[in-house]
Amino acid sequence: MGEWEEHKLEDITAEIGDGIHATPIYDDNGTFYFVNGNNISEYGITITATTQTVTEEEALRNNASALNSYSILLSINGTVGNVALYKNESIMLGKSACYINVSSNINRNYIFYYLMMPKCQFYFTSELTGTTIKNLSLKSIRKTKVLLPNANEQSKIARLFDAINERIATQNKIIEDLKKLKSAIVEKVFCSPNQEYPMCRIEGFEQALSTYKMSDFSSRIASKNKDSKCSLVLTIAAQYGLVNQESFFNKSVASDNLTGYYLLHKGEFAYNRSYSAGYDWGAVKRLDNYDEGVLSTLYICFKINETIVDSDYLAYYFESSKWHKGLSDIAGEGARNHGLLNVSITDYFNTKHRFPVIEEQKAIAKMLNTITEKERKATLLGECYQKQKQYLLRQMFI
User: At a CB cut-off of 8 Å and minimum separation 6, what does 254 contact?
Assistant: First the structure.
């Protein structure tokens, strides 16, 4: 019922301010976290291992006392536009975060979701200043236009988004629990019998494990991309496997001439010797999402003999700490040079591995595949909830 009224954000708030622009006095024993824009997300304030702390006295002397049950936090420098509801956390704000204290007669959660609306986010983007590091001024924030329905409708809209957010958070927890479960099983299955807990075995299989060199069950791929037959350049992303390089980096970092690149087919493996930021140490991934692709010669590519080792089993084995530790041991302390791990191809294929019989491998892989499939479906459902929320953010606010 009734028309929506247009207001400036400054007219429906008690105070809008930002964090301190100076370096605070840090204290390792402090009880208040020093929070900036990169700590802010719609699901709350994220505290990491690198988040600094200050004393309560330092926090209250600055801006901690300005925060209350009506406060919304907004990232305004570098990362711009992230919002979070203040939930009485012990924090002090830095210059890349601001606080918006909503008037007591306005529904805070309604404003919280309104600030996430694409139209509002577009306004923030249009108001950015600076060249290298973008900044959103308090003046622009205060002038943000907000359309308000009556109090009852504000409350209903806020409750709807609260319910969606809660379901998304629950779905994220389900996905995270499945990842932890799979990781725990991988470690239990592949850990060395000499460690404090024994290697997990599948019931009904009692045969001793056999030791193989990598060269016993795999062979190196050295065939090149003749005449640049394939144009899909791949890269290893630790969390996603072998992916399209251009899509992953949002640009191509490959050579213009792809004839010297290795040609990899679906089901074959690649080992990444790079240890730079964003890569997994010792990452080995199987090509699953494409029929073929090309890789730089900095990779070691290989295919396996599936009469000895099951491909799915091996893919999980390469996720285990046992694999990573074994590779680290042969690399040695002085092996890092120019962004590469100096593991020679000979040493790589001479690494030794202990596997159960192929039937037990398949049973283990089947168990882990079941969890992987549940994780995949849970992730797809989570993405649907996110799309639903984004659709409603576009449609619910006029």
Answer: 233, 245, 261, 296
* pLDDT for 193: 55
> CA-to-CA distance for 170 and 159, rounded, in angstroms?
16
Gap between the Cα atoms of 68 and 173, Å rounded: 28
Query: Residue 247 contacts by C-beta under 8 Å, 6 or more apart in sequence?
Result: none
What's the pLDDT band for 340 if we cut at 50, 70, 90? low
- Whether the pTM exceeds 0.85: the reply is no
Segment 236-243 mean pLDDT: 82
Average the pLDDT over 166-180 and give the result. 96
Cβ atoms within 10 Å, residue 362: 18
What distance in Å separates the CA atoms of residue 345 and residue 332, rounded to the nearest whole number? 15
Residue 210 and residue 234: Cα distance in Å, rounded?
34
Closest by Cα among 185, 162, 154, 117 to 2: 154
CA distance 269 to 278: 19
Q: Do domains 151-206+356-398 and 210-355 have the same CATH topology?
A: no
Q: How far apart are CA 309 and CA 215, in angstroms?
A: 12
- Reduce the DSSP state of residue 316 to 3 states and report it: helix
CATH 3.90.220.20 fits domain 5-148: yes
